Amino acid sequence: xxxxxxxxxxxxxxxxxxxxxxxxxxxxxxxxxxxxxxxxxxxxxxxxxxxxxxxxxxxxxxxxxxxxxxxxxxxxxxxxxxxxxxxxxxxxxxxxxxxxxxxxxxxxxxxxxxxxxxxxxxxxxxxxxxxxxxxxxxxxxxxxxxxxxxxxxxxxxxxxxxxxxxxxxxxxxxxxxxxxxxxxxxxxxxxxxxxxxxxxxxxxxxxxxxxxxxxxxxxxxxxxxxxxxxxxxxxxxxxxxxxxxxxxxxxxxxxxxxxxxxxxxxxxxxxxxxxxxxxxxxxxxxxxxxxxxxxxxxxxxxxxxxxxxxxxxxxxxxxxxxxxxxxxxxxxxxxxxxxxxxxxxxxxxxxxxxxxxxxxxxxxxxxxxxxxxxxxxxxxxxxxxxxxxxxxxxxxxxxxxxxxxxxxxxxxxxxxxxxxxxxxxxxxxxxxxxxxxx
Length: 438
Prior knowledge:
Blueprint: E1 34-40, E2 48-53, E3 61-66, E4 76-81, E5 89-95, E6 106-115, E7 118-126, E8 136-142, E9 153-159, E10 170-174, E11 180-185, E12 190-195, H1 196-200, E13 208-213, E14 227-235, E15 240-247, E16 250-255, E17 263-269, E18 280-282, E19 288-291, E20 300-304, H2 306-309, E21 321-323, E22 334-337, E23 340-344, E24 350-354, E25 362-367, E26 385-390, E27 397-401, E28 405-411
Antiparallel strand pairs: 1-28, 2-3, 3-4, 4-5, 6-7, 7-8, 8-9, 10-11, 11-12, 12-13, 14-15, 15-16, 16-17, 18-19, 19-20, 20-21, 22-23, 23-24, 24-25, 26-27, 27-28
């Protein structure tokens, strides 16, 4: 969900060694408990971005964002049929028109949703000045008729002329009010919130229903950069819809139960080594958060929010632990299926670590999807595994690799995930589209 942005910040942390550091090689790229089911190459190096996996077993589709890095690569979305996970097949490709005229990245993040018994995909887009669609943030496709590719159709485009440069990251959430909402990054000090039901019904004009602000940075600088990434989830204990955002200054947690009146609950600022937060994901009960910031050598930091949520403090700045696959690299996007955290680790491929002991994270599985050279064009760590997702029903793991394509895996002993089996709320990034509002 994020792209590398180097910084001069230093990390002042003590690492708990992970059991798999430097063990993967060309001869043995993965741990014994990870099985590679399937793999499909998708195109030129550095042309694959994030991905999303549908959760229903009778809709075995993965959506892969396609980008351009340098001069090669398409700009759009690939739809991959995983009805046989050992044999992934691309069944549809959406591409922006006039590919060569569009500047910069193209497709970055991708999510799906269900509304009124139909299925849709949201592809976020970023195009630069000097070409068309500089103000285009996302395209929505109706994919209800899959696996028949002839039924896929474009239904809407979301534009923001006053905040151009597109949507770098997006998140789709079914709010407790029953509405399906699209949260997007924009080139401003807030996240935009759109009502997707209104958009697919044709009411684009009124679909922007809320903004979640970025609090003023402690040093007062860079606030216009806004958020880089976020997660939204239901908090069972309090009945709140909570927004977890990483951006300028650090990380922020809001109560967005009332969309027109977001309430800031917790700030995580002044953290050593963090000037700009990126991916930020809570545990199912909302107590712990896994926080990423993006520069070489940066680990994932784990924070305990309880002191702030209990009112003892207003800001948290010290992690209780940290984890990385290889200290020389950078770990990237992640999915939490407690106690496991599934990571797309750039040069380190798929990584899985356990937070059974939150103060001592332990690597439990890995598979390196990229054994090629580092990316000398930009920064050495910007290559390899980009996106990761998990299907809760059966535990299928899918990874998008920037240069090698799409991979499917199984981990021994992991046949699916339901929070109740761990004594926790059944809350993850996967949405239950057919459930009644909380």
